[in-house]
Amino acid sequence: MSALTRPREGRMIGGVCAGLARRFGTTPTTMRVIFLASCLLPGPQFLLYLALWALLPGADRKTATTAW
Predict the structure, then answer these.
(1) Which end of the chain is more exposed for a tag (fewer CB within 10 A), N or C?
(2) Helix axis angle, 28-38 relative to 45-55, nearest 10°?
């Protein structure tokens, strides 16, 4: 598992789903489908997405590369 950051690559809007997918070892598309499906349920999913967008740090180029 990697750190929870918003990557520069693979983002569509804010990079939250791409960051969560990288953190939990799944594809960004899967995370986006899960998010869209959860929006059908009552709750503050969209507000949580906005909060994560504002609070998660962006991945800079130094931390985005893997160290060997």
Answers:
(1) C
(2) 140
Region 10-18 average pLDDT = 83
Unique residue bearing structure tokens 């507000």:
47
What's the whole-number average pLDDT of the chain?
Answer: 81
Given this model, what pLDDT does residue 61 score? 53
N-terminal to C-terminal alpha carbon distance within the chain: 16
Predicted TM-score (pTM) of the model is 0.69
Close Cβ partners of 64 (under 8 Å, ≥ 6 residues apart) = 7, 8, 9
Strand partners, 4: none
Q: How many CB atoms lie within 10 A of CB 34?
A: 14
